[in-house]
Design brief:
α9 links the parallel β9 (about 275-280) and β10 (about 300). The chain is built from eleven helices and eleven strands. It is globular, with a radius of gyration of 21 Å. α1 crosses α5, α2 (about 80-85) packs parallel to α10 (about 305-320) and α5 (about 165-185) crosses α6 (about 200-215). It has helices spanning about 30-45, 80-85, 100-115, 130-140, 165-185, 200-215, 230-245, 265-270, 285-290, 305-320, 350-360, and strands at about 65-70, 90-95, 120-125, 145-150, 160-165, 190-195, 220-225, 250-255, 275-280, 300, 335. About 35% of the residues lie in helices and about 15% in strands. A six-stranded mixed sheet has the order 7-6-8-9-10-11, with helices on both faces. Strands 2-1-3-4-5 form a five-stranded parallel sheet, sandwiched between helices. With about 375 residues, it is of the alpha/beta class.
Length: about 375
Amino acid sequence: MLAGATLVAIGLAACSSTDSGASGPLSAEDAAAVDQAKVEVENYTSNPPLVVEPLSKAPEKGMKVASVTCTVNSCHPGQFEEAATALGWESTEYTYDLAQGPSGFVTAVRQALQAKPEALAILFVYPTDVIAAEIEQAKADGVVLVDVASALEAPPEGFVSCVNCAPVLAANGKAEAAFITADAGAATEVGVVGDKTIDANRIAGGATTDELARISPNTAVHDINVGYAKTPQENSQTIIAALQRNPNIDYLAFQSPDLMPGVDQALGAAGLSDRVKVVSIDPSGESQVAQLEQGMPNVWIGGDGPAYWWRAADALARNSVGDRVDPAPVASIRVITQDNLQLDMYAPPNYKAAFQTAWGVGG
């Protein structure tokens, strides 16, 4: 029995036409994979303290830095500035609205470079090629760059680190699939909900789909494409329509909580609240974790949360003192349910103090 999830076999409805498979019983091999998923989920139900290797010396104060991030909660605006302030750096944040598409992102990067920072951390929700010219300008100007959340496996040329990038995003998606498989205990049907124009959603959602196929080949997966540029009502209508077309969907696997507003009410109005379980990646703070108490979502998959911006600042701090910089740092993962609920589980515990102590600036 898991500490963070009640694992029960769910009776499966009759087979139906699906996007990637059909409901059915698990073979002995598949059953073994489900058992392994249960073990993986059990490993994700605690929140061990973050360990950060100390720097060889404290970074010099006064460095001029900048960050570029989006405005939605899962982009954690303000966190890099807080980390930079702890280091004694002069920091400016430039934000972009996802509803504007790539043009807003390009504008924010250009504004950041016009300020002539010594270092710049950029959160990518679009491919790096979108700002290829700006990256070349930054490299020519000697700006130290950190890649945050891009679709790459490793930092592109000219970047010292790739924080919260493709391997981390995929790990979150795999953990989501492991929970669903372990919780169902048998083949089921899953709606993977995300905005495929956003790299983080596309990568995590793809990993959820691929991992479900690996663990439970008879589980059916349906892509439900919603959008950050759409209203909550539009997204909710898309989701309910997908559930009506595919009445055997038992789980909705969200790739971001920013796409969930309005879904609780829509499920209730459709009479589906008690049947369809909602799982989402990346709660952004204590208030979102607390939503588990009201049952929406039913489960969170917690990653680094805002700590990934502190990892970006850590990369710049290490680079500034000549220490080794991890090109692709790993992140922690937690499965958060009503059974193991603690409000601080949206991120590693005491992450701010852990980084500040490692930097030699208090904490």
